[in-house]
Amino acid sequence: MKCEVKIKKKKIGKINKNIYGHFIEHLKRCIYGGIYEENSSLSDENDFRRDVLYAIKKLNVPVLRWPGGNFASNYHWLDGIGPKEKRPKKLDTAWIAEDNNHFGTEEFIKYCRLIGAEPYICLNFGTGTLDEALGWVEYCNYDGETYYANLRRKYGSEKPHKVKYWGLGNEIYGKWQHGYCSAKEYAAKAREYAHFIKKIDPEIKTIAVGADNPDWDIEVIKTAGEEIDYISIHTYFSSDDYLTVAGLPYFVDRRLKLLEASIEVGESFIKKEKKIEIAYDEWNMWRKALDDEENYNLSDGLFASGVF
């Protein structure tokens, strides 16, 4: 018996390299004891774990999101700059953990440069303020003789970091999140933040919080759509059934198409030259409790491959 497979090549679109982006958060060993570990023989002069850095470089990460996640909604960036011994240890009320703030903006930017990734910073839309957010953008991206630009020169870099991607909060639709509010409340706030952020640097791309819910997503686009460039979607799954996990990409495809339709509806209410794009910036299998570490298997690999 002879079998033959014929493959016809047909170009159906261009793959955006950013779909292979990654996300780090101050949660368990992701950062402290993961990519960053002080006083360790495994770390380099920056306290970056050499073994982890080597593994990440092999992935060719195009964009890296930080500081969260839920952590972002009560993170104050000024705590994480300057001499490490003077940085305050704070209680992170998202995950109920103590954070010494030794991994902050300069460490994150340096890590991105080492792995060749575009930095993506998520702003504090919970306990933070507009002034605080604008100060962070000024610190990272402004090249003038201002307080925060000079603070960057003092503590980190003479030249601006030119952070391109800025997230307008994280999962504000959820009751588990600092700053939880309605779509209308969030959209008004996102519009204001995005508007003034782009006054500091017009090249910035802003990412609004999407809820994987058409009612929320359409409201956000109707109100803030003229000021935003992306809307996000987050999905996590939990199943021990092999075929269910392997088949989940079909569900992901349907959710992305639903968001695409929501964008089209929302944009019909506004005037915008460039279409709002999707930022699928959190997704994975997640079965374990937060105090355990995930052990992935072949079905998880099939799931990830299917999503891509």
Give the SSE layout.
Elements: E1 22-23, H1 50-59, E2 63-66, E3 90-92, E4 97-99, H2 105-115, E5 118-122, H3 130-141, H4 147-155, E6 165-167, H5 183-200, E7 205-208, H6 214-224, E8 230-237, H7 242-267, E9 277-285, H8 298-307
Parallel strand pairs: 1-2, 2-5, 5-6, 6-7, 7-8, 8-9
Antiparallel strand pairs: 3-4
Helix pairs in contact: 3-4, 3-5, 5-6, 6-7, 7-8
Which descriptors would you attach to this protein?
two-stranded antiparallel sheet, 9 strands, alpha/beta, 308 residues, single chain, 35% helix, 8 helices, 13% strand, seven-stranded parallel beta sheet
Short summary of the structure?
35% of the residues lie in helices and 13% in strands. It has 308 residues and is an alpha/beta fold.
Verbal overview:
With 308 residues, this protein is α/β, with parallel strands linked by helices. The protein is 35% helix and 13% strand. It is built from 8 helices and 9 strands. It has a 7-stranded parallel beta sheet with strand order 1-2-5-6-7-8-9. A two-stranded antiparallel sheet has the order 3-4.
Tell me, rounded to a whole number, the average pLDDT: 96
* Tally of DSSP β-strands: 9
| Major pleated sheet | 7 strands, parallel
SS summary, helix count: 8
The parts where pLDDT drops under 50 for at least 5 residues are: none
Spatial separation of the terminal alpha carbons = 35 Å
Work out the radius of gyration.
Answer: 20 Å
Strand content range: 5-15%
What is the H-and-E element order? EHEEEHEHHEHEHEHEH
Helicity level: 25-40%
Strand order in the sheet with the most strands: 1-2-5-6-7-8-9
Shape call = globular
SS-based class: alpha/beta
